[in-house]
Amino acid sequence: MAFNFLKSLDADDIFISYSRQDGSPYLKGLVAALSAAGFSCYTDKLGTPAGEKLPESLLRKIRLCKTFVLLATPAAIRRHENITPEIKTFAEANGTDRIACVSFVPDAEAKNFPELWRPFLIGKFHEYEDPETLKTGAPSEAVSAST
Fold first, then answer.
1. Which runs of consecutive H residues, i.e. helices, occur in the chain?
2. Minimal CA–CA distance to 85: which of 110, 101, 68, 100?
3. Domain residue limits, the chain
4. Separation between Cα atoms, residue 44 and residue 49, nearest integer Å
5. Residue 71 forms beta bridges with which residues?
6. Contact, 22 vs 74, CB < 8 A?
7. What would the pLDDT profile of 63-109 be if each residue is shown by its tens digit?
8. Other C-beta atoms within 10 Å of 32: how many?
9. How far is Cα 47 from Cα 70, in angstroms, rounded to an integer?
10. What pTM was computed for the model?
């Protein structure tokens, strides 16, 4: 179709995957920092219908984003079944080249993440963030600059 380029007009630069249980304050700070740097960010905070299953509208937004950032908080790792479909959807549509991971678990490596995440994270960009930033909501300069 001649107008396929119009689909990309709805694309954001970055989709940020997180756990609402412990990642919301940090998410808010990261979105603010990335937005100030000129990036458009999408999360499931607004514009996503409620439900137990991921809505197709959210999966579509994930497919269209240019970069996927995983906030690997303790709750995200514990309840990985909520995040795994998001990372898998992005990887199937875009490959794993533009997946970045921010970890809040000391000494965590991709090999220690849930089995279902490993194919998407082994050998990928991985930045460690002080767990205290989950409370303060202030991402480090290293994370803001590198995502």
1. 24-36, 56-64, 74-78, 84-94, 118-121, 133-136, 141-146
2. 68
3. 16-146
4. 9
5. 102
6. yes
7. 999 999 999 999 999 888 889 999 999 999 999 999 999 999 876 56
8. 15
9. 19
10. 0.86
